[in-house]
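Researcher: Good morning. I'm working through a list of sequences from a screen, and I'd like to move beyond sequence-only analysis. For each chain I'm collecting a predicted structure so we can compare shapes side by side. This is the next one on the list. No need for commentary yet; just the structure.
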Amino acid sequence: MTRFADLGTNVAAAILHDEIGLAIGHFDGHVLRSAYQPIYRLQSGRLSVVGARALVRPSRDGRPALPSRFFERLRGEDRLTFECLCQTLHIANLPYVDLDTATLALRLDQMPRDMLDAALRLLRLATDELEEEGYDPPRIWCEFAATPMAAEQAVAVRAHGFRVALCDFGPEPAGIAAAMAATPDYIRLDGTWFRTVARAPEARTLLARLTALLHAQGIEVLADGVETTPQFEAALDVGADMYQGFLLAPPFLAGSAFTQRPLRLPELLRPHGKVIPLRRPA
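Model: Good morning. Structure tokens for this chain:
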């Protein structure tokens, strides 16, 4: 069997469905469930949901497990199988997501080209099957790290019909060079770094200049990790185009309800806050 066929067989065997049809993954003694965190854009003075980022929620013996610790210890084929399993889960559960969104962001790990092609083929198969079942799947953004490999990954992602985004974006020159080479639709600011920038006016000024540089290249900026009102104000100050974080909405599990009403700025800003967005009009 080919790597793609083996991968598809292993992923299919690891997915079960509950009584209402939700897809649930089983891997290395863990139960895997899909969660989705909304992405917002400022439109007509309100924040509206324009997409979602898919996340995995692993548990073992009924207790939550940290996704990062679980993922970091995986290597080689196990890591590829796990990542493809998560992506397939997220796509399969879209009909059970109470979120009317046109875009979905999926994280891709760095991997050799043959493994990447196999993973992208499986992702394309999952979206095609969903469409054949009568569900209109959203546009898929594949997010991967802003590294020297980004341009090569971008070529592979686009060849399979998906859109390109960079994540974990920070101040390193390599990340800026990766963005210029890969020309993604957007970059996702590293949440930890952004929250540090939000506390320093001088750093916000520098990030605003970087945002303007990215905008000049047709690249949008997503501010991730927005957890407080001052951080949201900082995201507006630096000219971010999209916003995500617990201040706006936490991730919700597939099958659970989500109220996607637009968020009004007075609900999020401090009464004395003076914010002048630098972002291009939506």
